[in-house]
Amino acid sequence: MKPYYKDDWVTIYHGDANEFLPDADVLVTDPPYGLAWTVAAYNGGRKHEGIKNDGDTRARDSVLKKWGGRPAVVFGSPVIPPPAGTRQVLVWRKPPDSGIFGTVNGYRRDWEAIYLLGGWPEMPAMRSSLLCASAAGMGSYLNTGHPHTKPLWLMRDLISVCPGGMVLDPFMGSGSTLRAAKDLRRRAVGIEIEERYCEIAARRMGQEVLDFGAAA
Asked: Which pTM was predicted?
């Protein structure tokens, strides 16, 4: 498949990861959760018709099956069953202005699960499984044009403790995984089924690389 975008660090493909899955060393992705998510108005009144393949978890589960037992970091909703083979669950606690849609009894939906799958190295417990947002609100990173953009600080934190080598995001969205990997001098490859998000991600890759670490 011909790349949609390519530079010294990042390669982007417009396509379906269930039909084309490049080889890599670690998978880091925010796939369709299986919620059939849509919203009439969000983030200042904009509507969104939903995410492709979000009606169930088949797209996620099929790609993870192809990936096999290699290390993977996979975001998900706590109300949807986790992927098969999940070894540990991390919690991303969002900013105080998040999680206002679909709430019950006044409780915000202000956290998401992050699943660790596959073969991870054994090491002493040194980090908390609770990853807390900075003081910035949700709007500080939702301006990419994708409604589920993840913050770069979070993606850099996750990638920085992944095994070395190539990072793969088979559900790339607006490209936060790839942007974070590039900032860390990690090579990365992403696949996205919707071309509008490939365009957004390509623009983000063109921004200046920040100095967050050496190449792995």
From this structure: 0.89
